[in-house]
Amino acid sequence: MPADRYYGFEDLALLCEHVITSLFSVAPPAAAATDAATAPAAAAPVAPKKEAGVPQLGEFIAYALYRTRLPVSITHQALLLLTRLKQRYPSARGTSTSPHRLFLSSLMLSSKISMDDTYSNKSWQIVGQGLFELREVNQMERELFAFLGWNVVVRDEELEGSSASRSRTASAAATRARPHPPPRPRARPRPIPSATAARRTLPSRSCVVTRGA
């Protein structure tokens, strides 16, 4: 049986993809270069087309969810932080890896502010499939925190309301979505067993080349 390219997290991964692509518009190449000097890099929009070396957004998100196995509430909290980011920078633009930066940094920040025992940034680099160097992961976390104006506290009622709203929107979008092509067989990586173990150096997948920090 072919491997599931969403690792069992298709619904949640596609929900996250839908939220990010809805929040942030696509910047033409020239516009992205022009706006780079005035807009924060972490507040950049998504590019829906897959480019060489850049994982498809939904699959990138699914892999992160599978490796971390964080509570679903943490994922919804990350999406809420991105909604706040959009409100602060409604016209920010970026590059093809901007959606991946947005999701990884928001999930990382949400887990750290909500959980006592969480992953190290070196582990988050592995979760990001080596797409970003360790120094970039560190910078992404600091920048997102600053761009949000340090407003990262999420109330329970706020989280519940936004989660329900997103679920309704995603359900409506799913009825209009075209079916995905059959997944290609590939080896399934191991989930990160625990936050404590993740603080040690974790092996990355053999097909991922992780650049040095």
Automatic annotation (TrEMBL):
Biased composition (Low complexity): 162-176
Cellular component aspect of the GO annotation: cyclin-dependent protein kinase holoenzyme complex; nucleus
Single GO MF annotation: cyclin-dependent protein serine/threonine kinase regulator activity
SUPFAM superfamilies tied to this protein: Cyclin-like (SSF47954)
Region (Disordered): 161-213
Biased composition annotated in UniProt, kind: Basic residues: 177-189
CDD domains in UniProt: CYCLIN_ScPCL1-like
Domain named Cyclin N-terminal: residues: 66-152
Listed transmembrane segments: none
PANTHER family in alphabetical order: PROTEIN CNPPD1 (PTHR15615:SF108), PTHR15615
UniProt-recorded name of the protein: Cyclin N-terminal domain-containing protein
Biological source species: Rhodotorula diobovata
Record lineage: Eukaryota, Fungi, Dikarya, Basidiomycota, Pucciniomycotina
